[in-house]
Design brief:
Elements (H helix, E strand, L loop, with lengths): L2 E3 L18 H14 L3 E4 L1 E2 L5 E2 L2 H15 L4 E5 L8 H11 L3 E5 H4 L3 H16 L3 E6 L2 H12 L9 E6 L10 H8 L6 E6 L4 H11 L2 E4 L16 H14 L7 H8 L3
């Protein structure tokens, strides 16, 4: 089971939690603690000098370098392309092309919302995939998954195994049950690999269901600050440890970054 940590996100501030990592140094220290807790992957958001959401390569590169200096290749680092109401699709794609990251997450509704966007964005995504970037497609509803499946059938997206992220809940509405997860899984092709994140204190128990269904977990302050009992956790590593416990309870071992790379590259 791959366990990823999303330690900050685009929206949270230090006022939300004192341990929210923002600077390259803080992100590197968080990467180390989460690796030691059992994470194999880090979903990275960075901020600019005003601590605002940024996709600019000059803001990404110091964070990527600091994380690599701290943990080497022991974490698979995934950059986000989230717009966060700041960036347009062409800017999002330019950032990814400039960075050529090991992995990147892409929201279907941001980069491929309609036929015109598919025509413009899909060739860039294929270029990234061919260059070796592990792409993860973010899906916010089972209906989006069905549309993703159709884009695959149409040949608009790179062929072969795909890496998907199912999002349960939102900042405005915490995830409370597993019904949407079940609907996602029902429409997932066996050849694809899927991960799930969930907003709110149900995150840990939902990751237990994810583990039992054969999926992978993404936890962290981007989506949740709380333990299942509603108490605020001390740091991101605590949420990783809770996910590890859920994996073990389901009889699964947790992946290393090397395991994750082999799995996601189909090796």
């Amino acid at each position: 089971m791959l366990i990823a940590v999303a330690p900050n996100g685009a929206r949270r501030r230090r006022s939300d939690h004192a341990a929210l990592p923002i600077t390259p140094h803080e992100l590197a220290r968080t990467a180390r603690s989460c690796l030691e807790a059992g994470a194999c992957m880090l979903h990275l958001h960075v901020r600019n000098a005003m601590e605002q959401h940024s996709l600019e390569p000059e803001d990404y590169r110091p964070a990527l370098a600091a994380i690599r200096a701290e943990v080497g290749d022991d974490l698979l680092v995934q950059v986000t392309s989230e717009a966060a109401r700041v960036y347009q699709p062409d800017q999002q794609l330019r950032s990814l092309l400039a960075l050529q990251p090991e992995s990147a997450s892409l929201a279907l509704r941001e980069l491929l919302p309609d036929a015109e966007a598919v025509e413009k964005s899909a060739p860039v995504l294929k270029r990234l995939a061919e260059a070796g970037t592990l792409l993860q497609y973010i899906l916010y509803s089972p209906a989006e998954l069905q549309r993703f499946n159709q884009l695959m059938l149409d040949g608009a997206l790179p062929k072969g195994q795909q890496f998907l992220l199912f999002v349960l809940g939102s900042f405005d509405k915490a995830a409370t049950d597993h019904q949407t997860l079940a609907a996602f899984v029902a429409h997932t092709s066996p050849e694809h690999s899927w991960m799930c994140c969930a907003f709110g204190p149900a995150e840990t128990t939902i990751m237990g269901e994810v583990a039992r269904l054969g999926g992978h977990a993404r936890v962290g302050f981007e989506n949740n600050l709380q333990a299942p009992d509603g108490s605020v956790v001390a740091n991101n590593a605590t949420l990783v440890r809770l996910a590890v416990e859920q994996a073990k309870a389901a009889g699964r071992t947790t992946a290393t970054a090397a395991d994750a790379r082999r799995h996601l590259r189909g090796n």
